[in-house]
Amino acid sequence: MEELPPSHFLAGRAAALALGYLRYRRGSPGRGLGLRALRRARRQDISDVGHKYHLELVLEDTLDNGSTVNCAAEVLYHLGAKSTAPDVQFTLDRELKNAAEADKVFYDRIKSLNKELVAENIPDSHGNVSPEMEPVRLLAWAASGYVIWQNSTENTKFELAQIKRVKQVKRSDESLEFDYMILLHEMVSQEIIPWQMTVLWHPGHGVEVTQESRQPKHALE
């Protein structure tokens, strides 16, 4: 087991992947998870399997006055398997603030709209997000966490840069469906990548990404 400085680029990549996975598993329109600190990172070479990172993270709930929770995470990158998503496991030292009330407020608001929600450029060119669009962004955080998890390797580091477009899709059941076009910033290559994702969400069922695909640059035109 090799100890890595928390500032090491490999540790940072594994931490970004772990954060994406955590957002996907625990995020919602009423809960935003951020990375406050990476306290410790160790790298383990498992012969014929891959590289496993053991991480100690400090997460913050951006909607809970920045309250923090400690997280132990393990990230396993499989050798030579670009088509296989890394394995991620995590434990939290306490439960996160209950997001049910905030989730229900957002759900009821969207359900009460006379026509389907449509928005673009979140945040705007000045970095601003309106209060009514913040849950839409946090849902994109959670859904993009799935995309980041599925498409990461040891040589990538993704983060959500912007929602270019989002459009609600009408459904006959109780779930909400949104079609997102997002921009992912790949920090290693410094590439900005358009990515489409179809997202289902219901307060009782969590986030589900039913479709996701990398888009050509001209998709934004």
Overview of this protein structure:
Strand 4 and strand 5 (87-92) form a beta hairpin. The chain has helices spanning 9-26, 100-111, 134-151; strands at 2-4, 33-46, 50-61, 67-78, 87-92, 118-122, 158-169, 176-186, 191-202, 206-214. Helix 1 packs across helix 3 (134-151). The chain has a 5-stranded antiparallel β-sheet with strand order 1-2-3-4-5, covered by helices on one side. A 5-stranded antiparallel β-sheet has the order 6-7-8-9-10. With 221 residues, it is of the alpha+beta class.
Provide a short characterization of the protein structure:
By secondary structure, the protein is of the alpha+beta class. The protein is built from 3 helices and 10 strands.
Structural descriptors:
globular, alpha+beta, 10 strands, 221 residues, 3 helices
Order of helices and strands: EHEEEEHEHEEEE
Average pLDDT over all residues: 94
General shape: globular
Ranges where pLDDT stays below 50 over 5 or more residues in a row are none
Count the beta strands.
Answer: 10
Distance between the termini: 48 Å
Strand arrangement within the widest β-sheet reads 1-2-3-4-5
Classify the beta-strand content into a percent band.
35-45%
Briefly note the structural class of the backbone: alpha+beta
What is the helical fraction, as a range of percent?
Answer: 10-25%
- Main sheet: strands, sense, barrel: 5 strands, antiparallel
In DSSP terms (H or I, runs of 4 or more residues), the helix count works out at 3
Radius of gyration: 18 Å
